[in-house]
Amino acid sequence: MFRSNVLVCGGTGCTSSNSEQIIEKLNEEIKAVGLEKEVNVIRTGCFGLCALGPIMVVYPEGAFYSRVTVEDVKEIVGEHLLKGRIVKRLLYQETVVDDNTTKSLNETKFYAKQMRIALRNCGVINPELIDEYIAQDGYAALGKVLTEMTPQEVIDLMLASGLRGRGGAGFPTGLKWKFAAANPADQKYACCNADEGDPGAFMDRSVLEGDPHSVLEAMAIAGYAIGATQGYIYIRAEYPIAVKRLQIAIDQAREYGLLGKNIFDSGFDFDIDIRLGAGAFVCGEETALMTSIEGKRGEPRVRPPFPALKGLFGKPTVLNNVETYANIPQIILKGAEWFKSIGTEKSPGTKVFALGGKITNTGLVEVPMGTTLREVVEDIGGGVPGGHTFKAAQTGGPSGGCIPAKLIDTPIDYDNLLAIGSMMGSGGLIVMDETTCMVDIAKFFLEFTVDESCGKCTPCRVGTKRLLEILNKITSGNGTLEDIDKMEELCYYIKENSLCGLGQTAPNPVLSTLKYYRDEYEAHVVEHRCPAGACKALTNYTIEADKCKGCTLCARNCPVGAISGAVKQLHVIDTNKCIKCGVCMEKCKFGAVVKK
Amino acid sequence: MKSLAELQAIKERARASVNIRESADAQTKVLVGMATCGIAAGARPVLNAFVEEVAKRNLQDIMVTQTGCIGICQYEPVVEIVTPGQEKVTYVKMTAEKALRVVNDHLVNGNVVSEYTIGANAIGAK
């Protein structure tokens, strides 16, 4: 019996800042003071506050340590674990109250407005121990389904819950299952899409790293509902920790007989295998994904037939996203009414977002649908750092669009985001401040889609390339007003004629920035000016005469010798030589160098 | 896995190790003084006795934790039990055996074990 549990985050974020070494050192120090039988060190999944990693939480006190280093471990063991004195200087400052006591993590701004369903076990259990998952009601939903419910009852429950696919499009999960169940076949498949490809999105990775069994359990439930006996998880090879934990979870579930033959003595067989993807963005598209599992080149095909009729190996298949699956065991256990009581009428439940960009609390958050963007950015995310102001948020990655500051009070759900020209997407939420150029952002996403277009259909392969060329022309100051109109027309052409979701949504970043920031595009074209000062070709550095003291610091630091001027005399930048690296502006102590 | 009962058995076994992670918001707190003075006087077996007994009896909403020196080193090992709305109870010169009785009488049945409290043991109390 352990009197204390030390939970250390083993997600990808914290692992990259040495949480493995911290765990090693912890075990070593705990042994050195003879506490190894009293203190249990546990590697968990993501806590969500990735900006403050590596994270360590000590129970029963619930002390939340942030930015722990290997050097801090000895102090934590000696003071906290041995002598019961919490090391205050390492605590997450939000949990420290003025009167020198600490408050619960759930009362901090970051966690207070969150509601964790898909992430409920992340940062709580050891994902490599099936027993800990079972302790948290794990596999009870599968048990209930197999012993008490018919497949039709499971599908009815999913339909009643109103759960919509968390991969981005928001198709009702129950409906997908109903279609697949209705098509008779000798073999069906229940698959999981873990090919998370949006830049800045890491929700699925965190679920798989922190709570892999919840996905396995839900896949078995899906299998039972539609009559499938085999499942595949398609996951990218870039997620080595998630792949490893999934494999451990599958092995443990097989050992316990929770996967395999005759589960719960119900006569139901189900097994799951992992298939690794090589990281192509298009393989997140369902038909391309299944083609890739079959061992062929990952290219999409025309729908219909939909996967529910002809999917993997030509058999009826359901394919759901990781986060969708992670919700399912809870819905089975707590019922459709409970799930519908959370979120909005048309989008029940919660959504996990990966917060990134210009935001204080970079990390993973789960909020009820209908939470406003303001609450997510300002309250949970802690606002924009460095005295900058919020300009826009980008959701949905390369398929989505921007939500401008004037719409910050929009409640986030599938339909609202579509109405304002963005989309839910898988849940990446990138925050931008006034130093971000919207044309540049559109260009960034277009570069991504040009790279990732599989090339099978012309509108996407050639169209996105042409789109990018026009964007390059505009950001280099050579665009015309006609280009903007042409570009808009091309966007609609690509949307309407592309084969799959990749091409159909690729112009969204351009269209939504055009919708809200057309003036920025026009400033680039007409005034040859980048209002945010981000497009290098359109900005010039100059030295203001009244502020320059002639200290020579800028001239000495200029890597290309573009600055001339004698001591105590005004310095001048030669714009022909200048490479716009910004070093002079950074070095100047008098704020004399300005970007125009 | 052949039955729900089998799953339930695993759950109950595993529950004990996970419970502790939910006790941070527990109402009743058992604080064992674990500064140098407490450890030297034998606070560790006392702490472990509380942890094990609370787990064995599957008591909910109780957090057993350690605290620093509260300044009455001659009375160590000292254990404080804090329940909201009630006066704090301070037990002194504790042992593992006494701990079991405190769990039974105080935590389970709500009767303070007066003879172990600081009031009964203070110098000149009798």
Describe the structure.
The complex is a heterodimer of chains A (596) and B (126). Chain A has 596 residues and is of the alpha/beta class. In chain A, 39% of the residues lie in helices and 15% in strands. In chain A, a hairpin with a 5-residue loop joins β10 and β11. Helices cover 42% and strands 15% of the residues of chain B. Chain B contains 5 helices and 4 strands. In chain B, strands 2-1-3-4 form a 4-stranded mixed sheet. Chain B starts with a helix and ends in a 5-residue tail after the last helix. The interface between A and B is large, with 38 and 37 residues.
List keywords for this structure.
heterodimer, A: 596 residues, alpha/beta, B: 126 residues, alpha+beta, four-stranded mixed beta sheet, 4 strands, 15% strand, elongated
The helix/strand class of chain A is alpha/beta
The largest β sheet of chain B comes out as: 4 strands, mixed
Q: What is the count of helical runs of chain B? A: 5
- Poorly predicted regions of chain B are none
What is the string of SSEs of chain B from the N terminus onward?
A: HEHHEEEHH
Detail the topology: elements first, then pairings.
The complex is a heterodimer of chains A (596) and B (126).
Chain A: E1 4-9, H1 12-16, H2 19-32, E2 39-44, E3 56-59, E4 63-65, H3 73-83, H4 109-112, H5 130-135, H6 140-148, H7 151-161, H8 173-182, E5 189-194, H9 203-210, H10 212-226, E6 230-236, H11 240-255, E7 260-263, E8 268-277, H12 286-293, E9 317-321, H13 322-334, H14 336-340, E10 350-357, E11 363-368, H15 373-380, E12 390-395, E13 401-404, H16 414-419, E14 428-433, H17 438-452, H18 458-475, H19 481-497, H20 501-505, H21 508-526, E15 541-543, H22 553-557, E16 563-564, E17 572-573, H23 583-587, E18 593-595
Parallel strand pairs in A: 1-2, 5-6, 5-9, 6-8, 10-14
Antiparallel strand pairs in A: 1-3, 3-4, 7-8, 10-11, 12-13, 12-14, 15-18, 16-17
Chain B: H1 4-19, E1 28-33, H2 36-41, H3 43-56, E2 62-67, E3 79-82, E4 89-91, H4 96-108, H5 118-121
Parallel strand pairs in B: 1-2
Antiparallel strand pairs in B: 1-3, 3-4
